[in-house]
């Protein structure tokens, strides 16, 4: 490898955003890749509730070097929100998830930290945009940080090293009324 390229190795910040599918899936793929390279990984899921998902099951049962936790209480979008869960619980869960995120990023224990749906948490008012940008700027130099969610603010885009926008071209639910499928959506 070119010595100049090797000298420039460092942790990068990646953002997966947009209205299309695949943001969490891309982040989980990076978590798996990092684990395969013997890197300690922490995944913190904002928004997503405690329902059983394939990625949490797979990591906890087969890839124990990836620590994954769903810190959220479920969807906060009014049309999708479980109204049995008061907004105060979402706010508290968002605060707890943020504290977990700051601890994971600053602890020095991990080489890759995924903050899944942190961008949606900004939109929902659970995480402050300025706090996220500050965390991005102050992360350890060798830490890879992955952020997912719709509607990445310009400040996050400007601060990140790599931004990918998932764009929906066609979706099975809207096109054929096929609901969320195990192994595909969860």
Structure write-up:
The chain is α/β, with parallel strands linked by helices and 186 residues long. The protein has one domain: 3-Layer(aba) Sandwich (Rossmann fold), CATH 3.40.50.300. The chain contains eight helices and six strands. The protein has helices at 3-7, 23-36, 54-62, 87-106, 118-123, 129-138, 154-159, 172-176; strands at residues 13-17, 41-45, 66-70, 112-116, 144-148, 162-165. The chain has a six-stranded parallel β-sheet with strand order 3-2-4-5-1-6, with helices on both faces. Strand 2 (41-45), helix 3 (54-62) and strand 3 (66-70) form a beta-alpha-beta unit. The termini are far apart. 33% of the residues are buried. The mean pLDDT is 87.
How would you name the CATH homologous superfamily? Answer: P-loop containing nucleotide triphosphate hydrolases
CATH class call: Alpha Beta
Q: Give the low-pLDDT segments.
A: none
pLDDT averaged over residues: 87
**Helix content, binned percent:** 40-55%
* Overall number of strands: 6
Principal-axes shape call = globular
Describe the biggest sheet?
6 strands, parallel
The CATH topology assignment is: Rossmann fold
Number of helices: 8
**Strands across the major sheet, in which order?**
3-2-4-5-1-6
CA distance, first residue to last residue: 39 Å
């Amino acid at each position: 490898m070119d010595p100049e390229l090797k000298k420039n190795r460092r942790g990068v910040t990646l953002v997966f955003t947009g209205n299309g599918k695949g943001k969490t899936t891309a982040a989980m793929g990076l978590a798996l890749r990092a684990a395969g390279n013997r890197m300690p990984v922490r995944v913190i899921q904002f928004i997503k509730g405690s329902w059983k998902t394939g990625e949490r099951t797979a990591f906890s049962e087969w890839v124990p070097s990836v620590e994954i936790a769903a810190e959220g209480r479920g969807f906060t979008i009014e049309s999708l929100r479980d109204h049995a869960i008061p907004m105060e619980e979402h706010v508290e869960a968002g605060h707890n998830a943020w504290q977990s995120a700051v601890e994971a990023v600053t602890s020095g224990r991990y080489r890759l930290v995924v903050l899944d749906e942190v961008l949606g948490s900004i939109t929902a008012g659970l995480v402050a945009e300025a706090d996220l940008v500050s965390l991005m700027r102050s992360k350890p130099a060798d830490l890879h940080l992955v952020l997912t969610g719709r509607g990445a603010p310009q400040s996050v885009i400007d601060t990140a090293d790599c931004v990918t926008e998932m764009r929906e071209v066609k979706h099975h639910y809207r096109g054929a009324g096929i609901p969320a499928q195990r192994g595909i959506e969860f």
